[in-house]
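> forwarded from #structure-qc
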């Protein structure tokens, strides 16, 4: 999708779809619009009772053609009250994308609205995000379709802004970098487990390194043996796919703090010997969404080259299979750094691979802060449902930053507690730790386990099991993987102080 800011806009332009955003007028009046023809049409729709500019309302019409050219369709989109939030603008753009796909409009012209409480830069950003995220499709495995069954595709979107063209363009670019990266995370997640293996994470990381000049190191099975990463190796024991740990470094070259991102890259979670029930097991190809988010965020970092912060991403990756060599309930493993763990349930595998990555990353890079993202527990879905990711942390400042980034990016978080009582629950009688306790508070005990591997480093754990796929009806998030975490991390990185 090509996005540009244009200097002129007219109904005579050759566009498949032209879009006006309007806010709700007060005192039961029709919403206002600068173009008098469009205003007339809005007035009629208002009188008919179909459109009042409320949030989520839209109407589509077909203007009379002037000569040969002219726009084929006009979509009017309501934003509600005259100070809409970033999320409302994002959703509005998502509904534009949905309309374009449905009508097979390929070339769009957006009239960028001027809004109270939101800068031109922010409006440009949220419109770009909504368009790109809402226009996303994954068609790789659909065999050729007949012309009339072919899905639409948005090719070009022009942004026309009366004022602040530079600001709108800056925002548009920012939205584009983050949303494109989120779509890359969706692509990885949409790939089936028989295609997207740990080696693909390695290839993707190497590709980013080549493109953006990052340092990339891939730890393979023998390197992990040398380093004694018993967590990843243990989980990998039942698999025929070799494990990988991707380590990607963005360096500013200045003396600045390092942010470490760690993402769970479990390319398929069968549960292992503690086998999962077969209903919905297919969804467990999405168990790599944390890893996808961490690497995709690095793509956006590569585009934006933020100053003032170095960023390192680590993705421990394997699948979790019940092959003949598989780890068994009761087995004891030794994590990177030497802590021993009694594996009482092989389905609680995410924490085992994350523990190695956290301990290794913290020792090697001495980060100022660590954020890990993982589809870690079913319990977080029970507790929070699908509209908030779980946040657990040992550092209030980091929590504050993340909560703000969550609100601004439309990827909100909800904090759950950590405390010594929960940590105590994870002590084992035969080893240092065990990987499960009883079901209750499963999201917290999982995080308490991870906490054992971060020492005093400010750290936050995001449990995205409820938000990584099929979770919402939002216009800019189609069915399937959401790409959650990428835009949140970018928001965090951009505003780091
Ligand atoms: N990948 C799953 C968590 C999950 C479940 C994500 C459902 C998304 C939807 C994780 O590896 C797992 O199996 N966790 C277990 C832990 C339990 C055995 C302590 C769970 O949540 O049931
Ligand atoms: Zn599992
Ligand atoms: Zn898992």
């Amino acid at each position: 999708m090509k996005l540009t800011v244009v200097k002129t806009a007219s109904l005579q332009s050759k566009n498949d779809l032209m879009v006006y955003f309007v806010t709700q007028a007060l005192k039961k009046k029709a919403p206002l619009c600068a173009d008098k023809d469009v205003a007339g049409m809005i007035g009629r729709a208002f009188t008919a009772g179909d459109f009042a500019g409320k949030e989520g309302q839209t109407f589509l019409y077909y203007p009379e053609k002037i000569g040969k050219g002219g726009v084929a369709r006009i979509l009017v989109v309501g934003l509600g009250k005259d100070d809409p939030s970033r999320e409302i603008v994002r959703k509005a753009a998502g509904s534009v994308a949905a309309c374009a796909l449905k009508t097979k409009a390929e070339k769009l012209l957006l009239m960028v609205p001027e809004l109270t409480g939101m800068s031109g830069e922010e409006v440009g950003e949220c419109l770009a995000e909504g368009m790109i995220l809402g226009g996303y499709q994954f068609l790789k495995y659909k065999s050729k379709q007949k012309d009339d069954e072919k899905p639409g595709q948005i090719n070009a979107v022009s942004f026309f802004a009366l004022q602040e063209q530079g600001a709108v363009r800056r925002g548009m670019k920012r939205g584009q970098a983050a949303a494109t990266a989120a779509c890359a995370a969706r692509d990885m997640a949409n790939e089936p487990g028989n295609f997207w293996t740990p080696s693909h994470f390695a290839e993707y990381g190497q590709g980013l390194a080549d493109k953006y000049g990052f340092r990339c190191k891939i730890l393979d099975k023998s390197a992990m043996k040398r380093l004694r990463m018993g967590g990843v190796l243990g989980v990998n024991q039942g698999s025929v796919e070799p494990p990988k740990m991707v380590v990607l470094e963005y360096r500013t070259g200045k003396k600045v703090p390092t942010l470490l991102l760690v993402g769970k890259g479990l390319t398929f979670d069968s549960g292992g010997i503690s086998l999962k029930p077969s209903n919905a097991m297919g969804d467990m190809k999405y168990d790599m969404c944390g890893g996808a988010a961490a690497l995709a965020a690095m793509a956006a970092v590569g585009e934006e080259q933020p100053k003032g912060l170095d960023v390192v991403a680590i993705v421990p990756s394997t699948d979790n299979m019940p092959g003949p060599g598989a780890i068994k309930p009761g087995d004891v493993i030794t994590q990177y750094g030497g802590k021993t763990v009694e594996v009482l349930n092989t389905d609680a595998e995410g924490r085992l691979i994350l523990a190695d990555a956290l301990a290794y990353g913290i020792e090697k890079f001495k980060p100022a802060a660590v954020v890990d993202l993982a589809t870690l527990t079913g319990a977080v879905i029970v507790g929070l449902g699908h509209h908030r990711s779980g946040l657990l942390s040992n550092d209030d400042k980091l929590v504050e930053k993340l909560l703000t980034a969550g609100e601004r990016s439309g990827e909100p978080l909800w904090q759950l507690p950590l405390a010594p009582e929960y940590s105590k629950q994870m002590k084992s009688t035969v080893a240092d730790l065990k990987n499960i306790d009883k079901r209750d508070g499963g999201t917290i005990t999982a995080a308490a386990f991870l906490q054992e591997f971060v020492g005093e480093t400010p750290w936050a754990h995001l449990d995205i099991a409820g938000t990584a796929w099929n979770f919402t009806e939002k216009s800019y998030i189609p069915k399937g993987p959401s790409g959650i975490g990428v835009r949140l991390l970018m928001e965090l990185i951009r505003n780091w102080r």
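QC bot note: The pocket of zinc ion (ligand 2) is lined by residues 269, 271, 320, 347, 349 (CB under 6 Å). The first strand starts at residue 2 and ends at 6.
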